[in-house]
Amino acid sequence: MPFVARAFQYIKKNSLIFRTMLLFFVVGAFVMFLVSGLIMGIIKGQYIQEIEEKSRQYMEQSYSITELLFESLYNRLFQVYSSDDVIIKAMYGEALRKSDDYMMIFARLREEVKSNRLVRSLYIYNPGEDAFFYCFNGAAGIAGRAEMFDRDAVLMVEDQNEKPVFLSRKVKFTDTYGAFTVDENWISVFFGLNRGMSTPAFIVNIDQGYFQKLIEGPLFDKGHATLVIDRNGVIISDSDPDMINKNLCEDELYRMITGSGLANDSFTYHPGRGGGGGGVTDYLVTYKKSPSLGWVFIGLGNKAELLANFNRIQTVMTVISVLFMLASLVISFFLSKYMYTPLYDLMRTVNDIKNQKDLNLSMKVYDDLRHEYLDLVSTVQKLESGIERFAEMKARAVAVSETRKNEWVQMAADYINRNFSNGTISIETIAEHIGLSPNYLRAIFKAVKGISLSKYLTDTRLEYVKKMLVETNMHVHEIVERAGFLNAKHFYVIFKQSTGLTAEMYRKKYGDGGSSDNYGKHNAENVT
Q1: Distance of alpha carbon 499 from alpha carbon 11, whole angstroms
Q2: Which residues, including other chains, have CB under 8 Å from residue 106's CB and lie 6 or more apart?
């Protein structure tokens, strides 16, 4: 208690100092919170814009991959169903010779399953034999309709009603001989005339899990999910297996998307996935509708998880602000004491001599006050001069920095223009060539050019491919290799996304219209 009493007496005795100190502290804290709040608001806005842009790119990528894969897959399967001699024989043949015909059919089914990673299994129903030919996990065989292990496939054949083109279903069964057990999600494609058991059928089962991996992509580490909904409002693909086949016709979010009238859009949704008013998390929703498939691609981003990195930065800024306020409190104490101690001593002296008539003492007090005042004015002038010099130096440094940034960006662009044909070129190699860190080079390149460094590299390669397609008759694969694309499938996806055309269509449309037979044959094989 004696310590508290002494502290209270000291504060009371130096109340002017503490009042001034409190004033400095309040002003400093206010300025700090104002500046930090403004900075964090700007950073958060930019961060959210980047997330939204990534989400749109993510959805465009998923949409393009699906359109390309499913359109080519469906066309190929229809061609097999309608014109392949072995498949037709398996559907319509009667009195088949088991030793010869069966082996030929089994081999053809295995070949077709292996030709496309998306295809999980194939079924052929032959009404004459009243049996199913099947191929799954490399095993092929035949099972009577009554013994067929995939009962959903049997129901599809027996059902005479119109069937959707793509039917999502949960599959759980063990084959007739106990060789394999299946517990997966498939997307089935039914080729038949919907006339029940009297009509042959060709059923293709697509691996939904593998398809989901293709459309999810690597843009987000966590906090983002993609789901695909068919024209009837049923989820046919989702990263959460429990959501497969769930009907969203009554879901608030699905009604908002289907009722918007827009082919694609993005917005923030609350309370989140599933509706019902009970959620507490905001979701970034990005969607795109496919007119050819009738599907809706929806990307759901959990804002709390997507902004996790930003929230960590905000926490650090808050800690820095608190430390700054504490430092301001200490500095304001010493500054207040330095500025007002002479005045306080003068006030005490004046009070002590106010009843005295000694003029010499009064003049001494006046001279002390005058000297203190002149010292204070000199100190302020020096501070003002130093601030002006600092401002000039900062302005010159900023100008030099902007010039250097432009030079670095131009060096990066020139390096890409010279070396884009090198398939191993990366942002790290470009940054190492210039002598900068990859992250810093990305930031200044985007700020100066308005596009990302990786997109600039891709656009440069695409422009080269377009030029060579128009001006030469070189094979597409040779042009792609010369342009630096190491993954041909990746090239076809981004080329169609960029131009709306395949490479062959682009050459026919903008070129001289002529190309060798070898080129046409090679390109047809690539598309297949």
Answers
A1: 76
A2: 133, 135, 140, 141
CATH of domain 452-527: 1.10.10.60
Give me the residue label for tokens 């999980």: 120
pLDDT tens readout for residues 496-520: 999 999 999 999 999 864 443 333 3
Side chain identity, residue 467: K
85-92 vs 103-114: helix axis angle to the nearest 10?
130
CA distance 353 to 360: 11
Cis preceding linkage at 218, omega within 30: no
CB-based burial of residue 62 (10 Å sphere; 0-12 exposed, 13-18 middle, 19+ buried)? buried
Structural contact between residues 54 and 220, judged by C-beta atoms closer than 8 angstroms: yes
How far apart, in Å, are the Cα atoms of 136 and each of 31, 130, 141, 345, 497?
Answer: 70, 20, 9, 98, 34
Task: Judge if pTM exceeds 0.70.
Answer: no
**Amino acid (one-letter) located at 476:** V
How far apart are the C-alpha atoms of 485 and 471, rounded to whole Å? 19
Please spell the DSSP secondary structure of 326-372, one letter per residue. HHHHHHHHHHHHHHHHHHHHHHHHHHHHTT---HHHHHHHHHHHHHH
Taking residue 121's Cβ as centre, other Cβ atoms within 10 Å add up to: 24
DSSP 234: B
CATH topology of domain 84-211: Beta-Lactamase (3.30.450)
**Domain spans of the chain?**
84-211, 220-306, 452-527
Q: Could you count the other beta carbons within 10 Å of the beta carbon of residue 26?
A: 13
**Residue 295: φ, ψ to 5°:** -95, 160
Can you name the CATH fold of 220-306?
Answer: Beta-Lactamase (3.30.450)
Question: Largest Cα–Cα distance of the chain, in whole Å?
Answer: 140
The two tokens of residue 159 are 């059902």
The rounded mean pLDDT for the chain is 80
- The string of pLDDT tens digits covering residues 161-181 is 888 888 888 988 887 677 778
Burial of residue 266 (CB within 10 Å: 0-12, 13-18, 19+) is: middle
Phi, psi of 249 (to 5 degrees): -60, -30
Same fold, 84-211 and 220-306: yes
